[in-house]
Specification:
202 residues, mainly beta, seven-stranded mixed sheet, five-stranded mixed sheet, 4 helices, 8% helix, 32% strand, disordered C terminus, OxRdtase_Mopterin-bd_sf, OxRdtase_Mopterin-bd_dom
């Protein structure tokens, strides 16, 4: 398997590839459950737990400032892909439309297919994070989370929710699907925060 689909990082890539990771020659797809198919005319993003709840349609998202991004992508299953090219909306630009409650300490990502994953507010609001709708110049494929996913480059990829449909701001910590099922509640690759403890995922 190693050599056809994955390769060891070069010595000069050590500052970009976290411990225990191999480089993917393609862009693997890992999904729990069925991949939802969402038409753009049906898609909406609901934001609540803020001072004024917001519901956005696709045209609302596309009217926001659009940016290009190149970011490394690290999966908890021990593969990484470098220099992934995306297009979308910076989280910091998106949040200009949201009246965030200063009591918010966490955000829960809600996704089509009833998947959830959590982020501390300081991890969510980082300058390098973005909502992606384009991958390598093409509309983001459903297998990779299209029409919209969050991308949080500094954490393992399960924290970058696919098929995003909602953001719930919380005044307390809450755990999402994988976090409730054995994964680390934060997921920082350089610290190898893969799992919460010994269990079925080890």
């Amino acid at each position: 398997m190693l050599g056809k689909f994955f390769q060891k990082p070069e010595p000069n890539q050590g500052d970009r590839v976290p411990p225990g990771q191999y480089l993917a020659t393609g862009f693997p797809v890992l999904t729990y459950g069925d991949t939802p198919e969402i038409r753009l005319e049906d898609w909406e993003l609901e934001v609540w737990g803020c001072a004024q709840p917001v519901k956005l349609r696709w045209d609302d998202l596309m009217a926001m400032p659009q940016s290009d991004f190149t970011a490394d992508f690290h999966c908890v299953t021990r593969w990484s892909k470098l220099d992934v090219q995306w297009r979308g909306v910076k989280v910091t630009d998106f949040m200009r439309a949201i009246d965030l409650d200063p009591k918010a300490v966490h955000v829960m990502q809600h996704c089509y297919g009833d998947y959830t994953t959590n982020l501390a507010i300081e991890d969510f609001l980082r300058e390098e994070n973005f909502f992606a709708h384009t991958l390598f110049g093409e509309p983001l494929p459903p297998d990779h989370g299209g029409p919209l996913r969050l991308v949080v480059p500094h954490l393992y990829a399960w924290k970058s929710g696919k098929w995003l449909k909602g953001l719930e701001f919380l005044d307390h910590e809450a755990l999402g699907f994988w976090e409730r099922n054995g994964y680390h509640k934060r997921g920082e690759p350089w610290a190898e925060e893969r799992y919460a403890g010994r269990g079925l995922f080890l």
